[in-house]
From TrEMBL:
It comes from Haloferax marinum. The keyword Lipid biosynthesis does not apply. The chain crosses the membrane at residues 12-31, 37-58, 65-84, 90-110, 122-142, 148-171. The keyword Protein biosynthesis does not apply. Keywords: Membrane, Transmembrane, Transmembrane helix. This is HdeD family acid-resistance protein. One of its GO terms (cellular component) is plasma membrane.
């Protein structure tokens, strides 16, 4: 375990608790969280489009400039649409989440089956099956699932990430305390 992690375990624990609380709040208010994410994606698209327009000035050819203008226009257009109608953006994000869960689930299942005979190969199949099952459930509930899916999944991810940060922090604390005790024993034994 790194010296930096051992020395800063308190900050990692505090950050983990804060991230976990934000995740819990996102789970408790999934629609608001989903709309916020939709608006944030819209903001990023608009910023990306502006950067594409700025990139026109560094283009070395007319073709490059035209591509920059085209990409900038599409990005800004998509960002404005998300800002004007974040609920439609939330539905689109939900479809992307469904596609991601389905594709990654199938890949994990295939990978797990191809690793049959290796230790713990079954966990990849189980993980992939859960992803496919979630995708099917979200699709079956669509468009109603759009109101909660992105927010709940984002919140769950933050909650799990925050929890893991706290676990790592306290593991680093234990290692740090054990090293301090060993050093204390060495100093006491040398005296």
């Amino acid at each position: 375990m790194s010296d930096s992690l051992q020395a800063n375990w308190r900050w990692l624990a505090i950050a983990g608790v804060i991230i976990g609380i934000i995740g819990l709040l996102a789970i408790l208010a999934p629609f608001v969280t989903g709309l916020s994410i939709s608006l944030l994606v819209g903001l990023f698209l608009i910023a990306s489009g502006i950067l594409n327009f700025i990139g026109v000035f560094s283009a070395r050819s007319w073709g490059g400039a035209i591509w920059q203008i085209l990409l900038g226009g599409i990005s800004i257009g998509a960002g404005v649409i998300l800002f004007v109608n974040p609920v439609a953006g939330l539905a689109t994000l939900t479809i992307l989440v469904i596609a991601y869960l389905l594709v990654s689930g199938v890949v994990e299942i295939v990978m797990g089956l191809s690793l049959r005979g290796e230790p713990n190969w079954f966990f990849a199949v189980v993980s992939g099956s859960i992803g496919v099952l979630l995708a099917i459930m979200l699709w079956a509930g669509f468009p109603a699932s759009a109101a909660w899916a992105v927010g709940v999944l984002f919140g769950a991810n933050l909650l799990v990430s925050g929890s893991m940060m706290v676990i790592f922090a306290y593991s680093a604390r234990r290692v740090s305390k054990a090293l301090e005790m060993d050093q204390g024993a060495d100093i006491g034994g040398a005296a």
